[in-house]
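dumping this here so i dont lose it
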């Protein structure tokens, strides 16, 4: 049985991240209805920016609010936000 494109994409991400995981896929050859989205590698960059998440390790100094403002300016966004704090606890 051949792997579906979605599973191949996930396995590629696993290899890139050094993850050794086995996936159990029951329906890998199903087509995705375009009304409900597309596979990440088929998305145009504008869609990644519009619906994306940036995983950011904020350096000490700037506030979370400042970092969000920088992201908005760099990507030309009118709206952006952050989930939770971007502050890192320092070891004691």
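and the seq i came up w/
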């Amino acid at each position: 049985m051949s792997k579906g494109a979605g599973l191949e994409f996930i396995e590629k991400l696993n290899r890139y991240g050094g993850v050794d995981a086995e996936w159990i896929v029951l329906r890998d050859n199903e087509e995705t209805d375009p009304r409900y989205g597309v596979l990440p590698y088929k998305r145009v960059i504008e869609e990644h920016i519009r619906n994306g998440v940036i995983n950011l390790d904020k350096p000490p100094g700037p506030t979370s609010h400042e970092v969000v403002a920088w992201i908005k300016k760099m990507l030309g966004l009118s709206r952006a936000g952050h989930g939770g704090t971007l502050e890192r606890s320092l070891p004691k």
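The chain has two domains: 1-42, 45-83.
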